[in-house]
Amino acid sequence: MKKIDFTKFYLFDGAMGTRLLELGFSFRPRMEELSITHPEVIESIHKEYIEAHADFITTATFGVNGYKYQDSEYTVSEIVQAAIANAKKHVKQSYVVLDVGPIGKLMEPYGDMTEEECYAYFKEIIDAGKESVDAILFETFMDIEEIKIGIRVAKENSSLPIFATMTFNQNERTMMGVSIEEMVKEFETLGVDALGVNCSWGPKELIPIVEKLCLISKTPVIVQPNAGMPCTDEHGSIYYLVDAKEFTDIAQRYLDIGVSIIGGCCGTDADTIRQCSMLKKLKEENHGKN
Ligand SMILES: [Zn+2]
């Protein structure tokens, strides 16, 4: 585990899922099995981001958990460990961060997932990865209760730094109605190391949310937008309209208003990350990396 200095500016990597779609793979039935069945593909995508000077390489484990993978021929632990090995393959100085997404099942009272069940799903993922990564990233959450359980699992079972981000609609609430203020308050109470927003919208649409976050958060802010809103072509393929240049221009604004960590979600690629790595604050802080 390499120590992370949270007073610095950092760059995360870009998308994994949409890169795999571009290469002809599918989310269904279980994309994360590719870490075992096609390790060379996952390694090569990580390599693109390492070469683009990302400080953080995110494991391809977003959708892996005991609920979604109950029919997999591999255990959660096997997939998580294979994914970490793939992420580490070409890493020299970058940090490797264990990616944890929502379980995919609603918690009580909206659904039937109990707190204990949710805790056990997160614990299985975190136990599988905690010895071999530098940090844990919780991302794309909409239910504050669910992500709080995930953070608690990480705190109670490891000493790893924690990044926690939720996904907001343009009304500045998550799909489950969580406000920015509520998220910041809950995450700061739990003592995460960085908090913010990912996915949701393109970089421009996220500006009001990012401004509010920077105003109220005492914790370093992390933002990982999509490359705009997803569009669908006549064959049903999804594409994104915001190019690396436009993304980077807005990323500069983020850094100016107080964001500490930027990266890309759906639709972003190595080009986006490479251009962001040239931003002054990121360059000065991270010269000589990779
Ligand atoms: Zn996304």
User: Architecture, according to CATH?
Assistant: Alpha-Beta Barrel
Number of helices: 11
Give me the count of strands. Answer: 10
Largest sheet: 8 strands, parallel
Strands of the widest sheet, in order across it, are 1-10-7-6-5-4-3-2
Kindly identify the CATH topology. TIM Barrel
Beta strand %: 5-15%
What is the string of SSEs from the N terminus onward?
Answer: EHHHEHEHEHEHEHEEEHEHH
Q: Name the poorly predicted regions.
A: none
- Radius of gyration (CA) equals 17 Å
The CATH homologous superfamily is named: Homocysteine-binding-like domain
Note down, in words, how this protein is organized.
- There is one protein chain.
- Strand 8 and strand 9 (238-240) form a beta hairpin.
- The protein starts with 9 loop residues before the first strand and ends with a helix.
- The protein is globular and about 45 Å long.
- By secondary structure, the chain is α/β, with parallel strands linked by helices.
- The mean pLDDT is 95.
- It has one domain: TIM Barrel.
- Helix 6 packs parallel to helix 7 (180-190).
- It has helices at 17-22, 34-37, 39-51, 76-88, 115-129, 144-157, 180-190, 207-216, 244-257, 270-277, 280-286; strands at residues 10-11, 56-58, 95-100, 135-141, 162-166, 194-199, 221-225, 230-232, 238-240, 261-262.
- Helices cover 40% and strands 14% of the residues.
- Bound molecules: zinc ion.
Kindly summarize this structure in a few lines:
The protein contains eleven helices and ten strands.
